[in-house]
Amino acid sequence: HQADPRKLVQDAQAGGYAVGAFNMHSDETAQALVRAAEIAEAPVFLQVGRAIVPHMGLKAAYELTRRAAEESDAEVVIHLDHGPWDEVFEAIKLGFTSIMYDGAHLPLDENIRTTKQVVQVAHSFGIPVEAELGTIPDAGEDVDWSAYYTKVDEAQRFVEETGVDWLAVSAGIVHGVVPDLPPQPLDLQRVEQIREATGLPLVLHGMSGVAPDDVQGAIKAGVHKFNADTDLRHAFRAGLESVFAQGDRQLEEALGEGRARMIDATVEKMREYGVAGRASS
Ligand code: G3H
Ligand code: 13P
Ligand code: ZN
Ligand code: NA
């Protein structure tokens, strides 16, 4: 069933853990995330993200996710991930109960101005808003971190002026995984300073390929929603590949194995985040 997104994050903050937020890409992957939540007895954010929207359209992705959520006893939030300007309003109309508006590419004043408008509309429907400040690079990009990091004073101003519910910060983690590159050390001190300056639960994106110590450190520093995608997509793909490696097998068999591997990988993340066993019923 659908759950109250604010409560899930508040409970995580009070309980000293982080809720997992994972991207759906198809029927089977949405089912895998919900099934993992049932097995781990964990609440979960199902995210409709940047890959699925051009593939099937926002409405179809929403309907599929809603059906997966409502057929289950698990506590599920249907969340728009990295929503651009027009899409956040479309998502609110469709019935998403949680949204991220991503204005991180805009100059600070523009990010503040547009985020504030999104918050006003979303809050009038009771919907919480996650925003991004600082830039989260893609794996393999050669970036100057001093320009990408979220700055503490800007975060304080951003939160005061926009009224967002949760803030996604840039502190050394990238979207995706580069297997041969050592992970950039996470700047936990910065995360903690942002938490103190803003008082909000923080979000970290790009949690695939992050060292276990950093996962635990991030929770202690004030992060209570973790976004992960790549590790779970890789698990799904490994399932497909293992079946097709045996020859010309039924597509359903491959999709089933992909789903099974993704369930296991998601349960593992939920245990690591401390959210396993936190379902309220
Ligand atoms: O990315 C968002 C646009 O800058 C929105 O600007 O509030 O003038 O439509 P607007
Ligand atoms: P990863 O693919 O690195 O796990 O990042 C996912 C994400 O942040 C989705 O918003
Ligand atoms: Zn992200
Ligand atoms: Na990552």
Automatic annotation (TrEMBL):
Highest taxon of the lineage: Bacteria
Sorted UniProt keywords: Metal-binding, Zinc
Record carries keyword Metal-binding: yes
Listed GO biological process terms: carbohydrate metabolic process
Chain sites annotated for binding dihydroxyacetone phosphate: G176, G206, M207, S208, N227, A228, D229, T230
Chain positions recorded as Zn(2+) 1 binding sites: H82, H175, H205
Comment on bound cofactor: Binds 2 Zn(2+) ions per subunit. One is catalytic and the other provides a structural contribution.
MF annotations from Gene Ontology: aldehyde-lyase activity; zinc ion binding
Binding site for Zn(2+) 2: D102, E132
CDD domains hit by this protein: TBP_aldolase_IIB (cd00947)
Name the record gives this protein: Class II fructose-bisphosphate aldolase
Organism of provenance: Quadrisphaera setariae
